[in-house]
Amino acid sequence: MSDANTQSKVIRRVTGILISLASIGAAAYSAYLVDQNISRNPRTEDAQVRANVIGVAPQVGGTITQIYVKDNQLVHKGDLLFELDSRPYAAEAEKAKAQLALTELEIQAYKDQITAAEAELRQSQAKAAYAVDYAKRVQALVGNLYVTVDKNQLAQTEAVTATDKVAQDQAALEKAKNLLGDKGDINVRRTAAEATLRDAELKLSYCKVYATCEGYVTNLQITPGAYAAVGEQIFSLVDKKIWYVLANFRETDLKRMRPGMSADVYLLAESEKKLHGIVQGVPKAVVALSTPSNNSPGGEGLLSRVNPTIDFILLAQRYPVRIIIDEQEGHSFRMGGTASVIVHTGSNVDEGLKVIQKLQQVEDSPFVSPMGGAGRIPLNE
């Protein structure tokens, strides 16, 4: 009986040891799989939703007379946003138009002057030819005493005078041609006046400011009657066509990361939904953690800056990876929102790059000409 109990204890002990070893092995294997998964699919919860922001500023200065939008309103490309007082620029355009008409009259007057100068030149050339020929004939008769010396001298003087008159008329003709302003097939006088008129009309058109993209009005804090200076930002437009996430990954996570890789994006506002994203680019430079400010030399002020969260241990630098969200319908994105991201380094890069190229073709839309655009848009009530 004692031997049986001893044998049973040994079996239980061995079984326990085996179970413990199996548990430890399973835990180690699970930890290995988790480590491999995290290594192959880096993730971060330090991410923010971003969009392209366009600062709306007039290209001419003036008093704001009308504002056709309100804060947070959705506008479409080509919608009229606001107007400036156009009266000074309309007066300049009328002045330039009158100057162009006056230039046309001046050009015609110079053409008439050229015609008169050509006629004068032909007349002086004919007189000079006669005077030179007459002087030669008179000089030939001096030796035969048919012509006095005084008459011969007078004929020679008249020939010289007539020749000088030809040179004078030729110079007058060249001056008239230069005053006309023709250079090849272009009249520089007319071209300058037309350019002045186009510039005045362009400035007049800038008095109406149109939306250059479809997006949301943001930070509108101005009313009609305020003066808007050239280049002074009145408000901003958040472009709604392309939304992306700037995910701050540790530098140790970037070695496997490439543009075109697939990513899972979770928004804090919609944590139950998984959005699909594509890595657009992996940065090559940020401001070093030890750099005191963005104004330091070496161009650091133009680089992204990611501040460390702990300053008493050695930290891996974080790099903002731009991830485009390629499914945007049915979601309410807000710039600055918090997100978490998982990048799948084993995904198909070529397919992702094709999607990015397609999205960028939509994003890189032509600029809206200030001469065109839609009319007044109603305010949302």
Structural class: alpha+beta
CATH class type of the largest domain: Mainly Beta
Helix content: 40-55%
Helix segment count? 5
Mean pLDDT score: 82
Describe the protein's architecture and organization.
This protein is of the alpha+beta class and 381 residues long. It folds into three domains: 42-52 and 239-363, Efflux pump adaptor protein, beta barrel domain (Elongation Factor Tu (Ef-tu), domain 3); 58-82 and 210-228, no CATH class; 89-202, Four Helix Bundle (Hemerythrin (Met), subunit A), CATH 1.20.120. The chain has five helices and 14 strands. The chain has helices at 2-40, 87-141, 149-180, 188-205, 349-363; strands at 43-56, 62-67, 74-75, 80-84, 182-183, 186-187, 208-210, 215-218, 227-228, 235-250, 262-267, 270-281, 318-325, 338-344. The chain has a six-stranded antiparallel barrel with strand order 1-10-13-12-11-14. A hairpin with a 2-residue loop joins strand 5 (182-183) and strand 6. Helix 2 (87-141) runs antiparallel to helix 3 (149-180). The longest helix is centred in the N-terminal third of the chain and has 55 residues, at 87-141. The termini are far apart. Residues 291-299 and 364-381 have low confidence and may be disordered.
Structural topology:
Layout: H1 2-40, E1 43-56, E2 62-67, E3 74-75, E4 80-84, H2 87-141, H3 149-180, E5 182-183, E6 186-187, H4 188-205, E7 208-210, E8 215-218, E9 227-228, E10 235-250, E11 262-267, E12 270-281, E13 318-325, E14 338-344, H5 349-363
Antiparallel strand pairs: 1-10, 1-14, 2-4, 2-9, 3-8, 4-7, 5-6, 8-10, 10-13, 11-12, 11-14, 12-13
